[in-house]
Prior knowledge:
Chain A has helices at residues 46-53, 75-81, 97-107, 112-125, 141-153, 171-186, 198-204, 222-226, 232-240, and strands spanning 6-17, 20-31, 34-39, 61-66, 69-70, 82-85, 159-163, 190-194, 207-212, 215-221. Chain A is of the alpha/beta class. Chain A has a domain at 6-90 and 157-240: P-loop containing nucleotide triphosphate hydrolases (Rossmann fold, 3-Layer(aba) Sandwich). In chain A, strands 6-7-8-3-9-10 form a 6-stranded mixed β-sheet, with helices on both faces. In chain A, strands 2-1-4-5 form a 4-stranded antiparallel β-sheet, covered by helices on one side. The chains are: A alpha/beta, B mainly alpha.
Amino acid sequence: MKSARVLVRAERLAKRFGTFAALTDVSFEAREGEILGVLGPNGAGKTTTMRILSTLLRPTAGRAEVAGADVATSPQDARRALGVLPEAAGLYGRLTAREALRYAGRLHGLAGEDLERRIEGLSALLDLGAFIDRRCEPFSRGMKQRVALARALLRNPIVLLLDEPTAGLDVVAARTVRRALAGLRDAGKCILLSTHLMAEVERLCDRVVILGDGRVRGIGTLAELRGEGGELEEIFVRLAGAGSVV
Amino acid sequence: MSAALVVLRKELLDILRDRRTLLLGFLLPALLAPTLSVLVPGWTADQREQPSPVAVVGAEWGGDLVYGAQLEKLIRVVAASDPEAALRRGAVQAVIIVPPDFTAQLARGRSRIVVRYNPADQNSLFAKQKVFQAVAKFSLSVVEQRLQQRGLSRAALSPVEVHEEPIPAGGGGLVLSLLLPLLLAVWALTGASHVASDVGAGEKERGTLEALLSAPVARPALVIGKFAATLALALASTFVAGMSQTVVTALAPAAWFDAAARPALRAGAVLLLAACAFAIAAMAAAWLLALSFFARSMREANQYGVPLLLLVMIGGVAASTLEGVLSSLWLAVVPFVNVVVAMRGVLFGRVDPAALALTLAACAAYTGFGLLLAVALLRREAVIFRA
């Protein structure tokens, strides 16, 4: 793992919104073939970190790189390496899931047979077959989440930023997604996974960065974080400084 | 396929599946435009042509005055036991009160009648005008009799006779020239408003904006694609409104317009009108799109469109007044009003090439500014995540 290429690097990242410091001095790395869990209670800075990495926010200080591209100075290069499942993973209700995926694919420069083949592949991987040709408007949260995840994976990106990818999924669908993510990690992808589900972290994440009040409170493998022993949830609560796990 | 084309194609597919688009973009302009500009004025003209129902108190003393008014089909005498109440409830549109000594006073020189009407009722105002018309005709006939008794003819009273001979104006006709520019401007804005709010603020509302902006597509390409979709629908609305109005005007009953009021546009004028419609639709699409990106929600975006629509309507209505106050070159740089004035010029057959060129150039500049603003807004974090 140590010899694997660093694909995501955050160096002393800071982000202020007016007088509010959303992030302060946040540094971490993620490598190819690794799932890095980004944990923290609400307001800890997870979404802000993800948005900086996905080039939507500019850091107030510090720098971040995705696949070697500075997200502030070379955002287009960073976007080409990224697949993003944002917190608000909405879909166009009047398009079918297939049309929505075609649109996303074309925006990423895919076309023709290649695009159709990838859509079919993701449909099989995420079990979209039953509703891929239906309009998205009436989809359940779980169906929307799976289509949005397929959208993030469409271009076969080397870095994935996933915010709560299993939120709203039933047990079977969540398992399908977790298997898919593990497979992607094995295929060399670098995945940043923001989640509130400790069981998911334990099953999937190779390393974890815990944020609290916009600062890094802990970073390492699960074994390193456990250190003196204890459940991950207890460690999380202690490090994040949160009164409760949300 | 370029990113802008990808965005345009998706937005058109998305928008055309929205029933509101069919309603606001096609059905309403097809029905409302001619209703406001042709059918209502036509019905009003019809109403003016019909004899007004009038109650007459003392009809037996009115003699030739009341009889003549009926003969000329200006009024229709309606029996009413309580004329005042009938006027209030609209059963009659005016009440004429003829005094018992009407004829005797007339013989002595000058008589008097009273006309009661409802100033809050348009039909009652028409009826009053018709009674005045009837009285004027009756008075003229009395004067003619008096002149004859003195051995004089009517020519002594009005030595100059005027014949009206309208020439074919070759333009849009009075009705179209006055109303078409304003209506095209309004439909350009209305058509653009709905689409702009959907393709701009709608991205935030649906939660699709973050994923869209994370794609490796330059912001200007996104804006151009969305602008092109908004413009296409604005032009479609404008075209539907214009065609519908033109067709209904052409098919309207002959009694509604005289020959000079009917449109007779040449191909060149139609092309100039199309250029003006394109200019106003582009300007509306760019500005509404920028406002929509700024808005938190589609509802807020639509709210921003309302004052813009009002400004255009007020500007359009005031255009004729402004034409007398400002020079045509100054008017050519006032957004929206400039296109209304230019279209009126085309329809009246009075095109000022310099003013028209400046109008189109100003519209292009305002459109460009609106697009630059939209791109700048789409780059601002505070706008993207404005909630």
